[in-house]
């Protein structure tokens, strides 16, 4: 029994882990789709077993140097735009993407265009130009300009007679009614398309009022869209200082003009959407910003009011403290004034008492000195009296002696005068001598008086 149980368990394990065909095919399809960039855009081979049906043409593409094959299909929407017919036994280049048909479990090429090998030089030139532009960095994302979010004037380069003009106008005005659209007429297919598009691009780029340049046209086959792969057109778009949008209505493969533009769109209608802002979205953003501003304003105002209230409260507290400090200082000043008054009164009284004592002492000393001086004066007066008497006596004695001597001299002089000169001259000289004597006597008296005063 145990063996049977184990055997039964082993038999059920593959069943639980096995995938269904549907799951397997879906996984294969998803894997191929996620790795699409690993597959080439162009494949060369020999056509065989071509079968045309209403919805498309099936054929087998065989390796030129071997027996390997892959199934191909061209849907009628692309087949009708291909100029060349699909001929068995012909070596061709196809532009296609790898497709996996999950319901039938088949891998096939979904063909978008088709050229006999003799006509493949154009494709090679395109790939060479693509490689050159890529090496120059014209496809780099960091060189692409951002479109202005709110353009006021959009320049459109397109045919003035095609439907692309109206499609773009309807799309743009549907989003931003009344935005200025400036159309620059250009030929968008044929031999003259390259020069016409380049001229319109340069004209629009020189216009300072143009905010965005849109290059657009409706869909078409590869041949009719080839002008958007021409090097002059591609480089003119790359050289534009004004942001550019390219939409050529080709869903299958990106043109070089789209690759080098700042923004690519699928159709003229899509270009109108890409080049203009969505007004409803803008209104929502404006309303959101207004709400945020209102909330921010209320928050800021509330915070500022709270801060202001705190500052006012702190200021009031500070003023109250300052008032208390001032009152305390006033009280201290009053106390100090009282102490000063008391000290001043005490000091003044003390000093007045001291002054009174000094005055009393000075008066006593003065009285004593006066009494002493009086005694001294009386003694001095006595001495002066005796001195005066002595001076008078000495003076009289001196004067007498001087007078007697002078008289003797005068008499001698008279005698000499009488002897030697005229009597009148002698008298005159005698008078002069008397005057001199009187002056000398006066000076002598003055000197005595001054000497007596110095003694007193």
UniProtKB/TrEMBL annotation:
Keyword Protein biosynthesis recorded: no
Gene Ontology MF annotations: exodeoxyribonuclease VII activity; nucleic acid binding
GO terms under biological process: DNA catabolic process
InterPro entries in the cross-refs: Exonuc_VII_L (IPR003753), Exonuc_VII_lsu_C (IPR020579), OB-fold_nuc-bd_dom (IPR025824)
All residue ranges annotated as the Exonuclease VII large subunit C-terminal domain in the record: 138-410
Amino acid composition bias (Polar residues), ranges on this chain: 9-20
Signal peptide span: none
Transmembrane segments: 435-455
Region (Disordered): 1-20
Domain named OB-fold nucleic acid binding: residues: 19-113
Pfam families from the UniProt entry: Exonuc_VII_L, tRNA_anti_2
A cellular component annotation (GO) from this entry: exodeoxyribonuclease VII complex
Coiled-coil zones: 305-372
Entry keywords, A to Z: Coiled coil, Cytoplasm, Exonuclease, Hydrolase, Membrane, Nuclease, Transmembrane, Transmembrane helix
PANTHER family: EXODEOXYRIBONUCLEASE 7 LARGE SUBUNIT
Record's protein name: Exodeoxyribonuclease VII large subunit
């Amino acid at each position: 029994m145990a063996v049977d149980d184990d055997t039964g368990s082993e038999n059920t394990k593959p069943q639980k882990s096995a995938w269904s065909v549907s799951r397997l095919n879906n996984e294969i399809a998803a894997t191929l789709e996620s790795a699409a960039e690993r597959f080439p855009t162009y494949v060369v081979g020999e056509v065989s077993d071509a079968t045309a049906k209403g919805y498309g043409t099936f054929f087998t593409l065989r390796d030129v140097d071997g027996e390997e094959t892959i199934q191909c299909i061209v849907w009628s929407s692309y087949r009708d735009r291909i100029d060349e017919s699909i001929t068995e036994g012909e070596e061709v280049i196809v532009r296609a993407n790898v497709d996996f048909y999950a319901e039938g479990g088949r891998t096939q090429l979904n063909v978008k265009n088709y050229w006999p090998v003799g006509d493949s030089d154009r494709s090679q030139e395109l790939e060479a130009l693509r490689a050159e532009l890529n090496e120059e960095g014209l496809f780099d994302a960091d060189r692409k300009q951002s479109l202005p979010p709110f353009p006021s004037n959009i320049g459109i380069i397109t045919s003035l007679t095609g439907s692309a003009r109206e499609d773009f106008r309807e799309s743009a005005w549907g989003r931003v009614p009344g935005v200025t659209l400036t159309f620059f007429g250009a030929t968008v297919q044929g031999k003259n398309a390259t020069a016409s598009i380049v001229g319109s691009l340069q004209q629009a780029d020189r216009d300072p009022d143009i905010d965005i340049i849109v290059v657009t046209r409706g869909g078409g086959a590869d041949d009719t869209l080839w002008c958007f792969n021409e090097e002059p057109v591609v480089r003119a778009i790359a050289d534009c200082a004004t942001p550019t949008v390219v939409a050529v209505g080709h869903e299958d493969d990106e043109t070089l003009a789209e690759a080098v533009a700042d923004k690519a769109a699928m159709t003229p209608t899509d270009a109108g959407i890409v080049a203009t802002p969505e007004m409803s979205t803008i209104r929502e953003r404006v309303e959101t910003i207004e709400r945020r501003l209102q909330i921010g304003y209320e928050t800021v105002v509330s915070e500022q009011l709270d801060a202001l209230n705190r500052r006012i409260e702190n200021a009031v507290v500070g003023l109250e403290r300052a008032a208390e400090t001032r009152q305390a200082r006033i009280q201290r000043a009053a106390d100090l004034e009282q102490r000063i008054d008391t000290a001043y009164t005490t000091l003044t009284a003390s000093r007045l008492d001291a002054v009174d004592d000094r005055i009393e002492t000075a008066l006593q000393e003065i009285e004593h000195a006066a009494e002493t001086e009086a005694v001294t004066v009386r003694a001095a007066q006595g001495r002066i009296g005796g001195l005066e008497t002595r001076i008078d006596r000495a003076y009289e004695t001196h004067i007498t002696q001087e007078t007697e001597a002078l008289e003797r001299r005068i008499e001698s002089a008279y005698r000499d005068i009488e002897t030697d000169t005229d009597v009148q001259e002698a008298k005159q000289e005698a008078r002069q001598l008397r005057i001199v004597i009187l002056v000398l006597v006066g000076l002598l008296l003055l000197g005595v008086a001054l000497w007596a005063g110095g003694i007193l």
